[in-house]
Design brief:
alpha/beta; 7-stranded mixed sheet; 4-stranded antiparallel sheet; 42% helix; 13% strand; binds pyridoxal-5'-phosphate; pyridoxal phosphate; Ser_HO-MeTrfase_PLP_BS; glycine hydroxymethyltransferase activity; SHMT-like_dom
């Protein structure tokens, strides 16, 4: 068959874009060659509805082994008693948890999207806000940090059935222990969504949700540096509190409800090529190299935040504990959209982002979100962060001047020229 040059040329163009630019999108990373190889392997040909040892298709002996290794490595990495590696994405992991724990109309308490939460935490444009009854907590206007007393007050007033702790754009460590006290006081299930900081949590650099939260979801492709995908975990299994019984009259375990919610509840065949890539990424994450990587991510992020603050940028919460930071650009007189577009012209990729108490629409926004997981994978260190901030600042200060943007682009390309995607 003829090679599809049209698509392969585009893939090559995207590779060049990734190689030559500075990638500051907080949810992105670069996977290792072996993760990439597994993701593009013959395992994509295999149907395997069900779970290892309990499939609805023949010929699953090999993928059974692959999936079991992925589960075992994830358990070892996070200290989890239960893991489901089948969710195709973070959103599908969250969907499955809601299916397992809620009925339509139930109240959920999540982090407001415009304050740093995720669409799937109850946004009205997402299934989570359409199917369920969402209420929100947010950050304090003065400090940009969560106020746990206020979250307790909201929970007491609203009596949610499920509370979601976790965010897409919150740069401070989360107190999962306190969240559990809040959840217990109203009899709610507590779910942590650690999609962003999962890699740092795995290596003990941030608070561990597993001992405190009933259920933990994550993506596998952000700081965890695996293929695009999702995962559900529990620190310990428990009998479901909804009275759902087995034929023998015993209560079904939560693990059984979650497995059923993923398949057949919410997905069909698992992506075994991606599960193989997840297994490899978890194996990489179990090494000391990965600990050093996460420590470097933390150092790079705090160095970048300090350099931005020194240049008069308003970082929500005035700094970062993790890999990311949210900048309110209102004192710089341009929107998040303007900044994103100007930075792209200089081969620096970020995303526009709502900031807490934003007065602009989600299509315009007052902020941008930056993260350092990807540039750290490419080998950049603390000393490079100041140079990146200088380039970002030059773009933002001259966002309407295409000559300056072209000159910055040359500097960006020179900086990234010899760095492979994965070091
Ligand atoms: N949860 C959080 C906190 C996220 O930040 C994201 C992605 O950005 C998701 C869930 C959804 O992940 P996916 O894009 O894989 O559906």
């Amino acid at each position: 068959m003829q090679r599809d040059e049209q698509i392969f040329e585009l893939i090559q163009a995207e590779k060049e874009r990734q190689l030559h630019g500075i990638e500051l999108i907080a949810s992105e990373n670069f996977v290792s060659p072996q993760v990439m190889e597994a993701a593009g392997s013959v395992l994509t040909n295999k149907y395997a509805e069900g779970y290892p040892g309990k499939r609805y298709y023949g010929g699953c002996e090999v993928v059974d082994e692959v999936e079991q290794i992925a589960i075992d490595r994830a358990k070892a990495l996070f200290g989890a008693a239960y893991v489901n590696v089948q969710p195709h994405s973070g959103s599908q992991a969250n969907t499955a948890v809601y299916h397992a724990c809620l009925t339509p109309g139930d109240k959920i308490l999540g982090f407001d999207l415009s304050h740093g939460g995720h669409l799937t935490h109850g946004s009205p444009v997402n299934f989570s806000g359409k199917l369920y009854n969402p209420v929100f907590y947010g950050v304090e206007q003065e400090t940009g940090v969560l106020n746990y007393d206020k979250i307790q007050e909201i929970a007491t007033k609203e009596q949610p059935k499920l509370i979601i702790a976790g965010a897409s754009a919150y740069s401070r460590d989360i107190d999962f222990k306190r969240f559990r006290v809040i959840a217990d006081s109203v009899g709610a299930i507590l779910m942590a969504d650690i999609s962003h900081p999962a890699g740092m949590i795995a290596k003990g650099i941030l608070n561990d949700p597993l001992p405190h939260c009933h259920i933990v979801t994550t993506t596998t492709h952000k700081t965890l540096r695996g293929p695009r995908g999702g995962m559900i975990m529990m620190g310990q299994d428990f009998e479901n509190p909804f009275g759902i019984k087995l034929k023998n009259g015993n209560l079904r375990k939560m693990s059984s409800l979650l497995d059923s919610a993923v398949f057949p509840g919410n997905q069909g065949g698992p992506l075994e090529h991606i599960i193989a890539a997840k297994a490899i990424a978890f194996g990489e994450a179990l090494t000391d190299d990965f600990l050093n990587y996460q420590l470097q991510v933390k150092h790079n992020a705090s160095t970048m935040a300090d350099a931005l603050v020194a240049k008069g940028y308003n970082i929500i919460s005035a700094g970062t504990d993790n890999h990311c930071m949210l900048i309110d650009l209102r004192n710089k007189n341009l929107s998040g959209k303007d900044a994103e577009q100007a930075l792209v012209k200089a081969d620096i990729t970020v995303n526009k982002n709502m900031v807490p108490f934003d007065d602009k629409s989600p299509f315009v926004t007052s902020g941008i979100r930056l993260g350092v997981a990807a540039v750290t994978t490419r080998g950049l260190k603390e000393a490079d962060m100041g140079a990146i901030v200088d380039l970002v600042d030059e773009v933002i200060t001259n966002f309407e001047d295409d000559t300056v943007l072209a000159a910055v682009k040359e500097k960006v390309n020179a900086m990234m020229k010899d760095l492979p995607l994965f070091q």
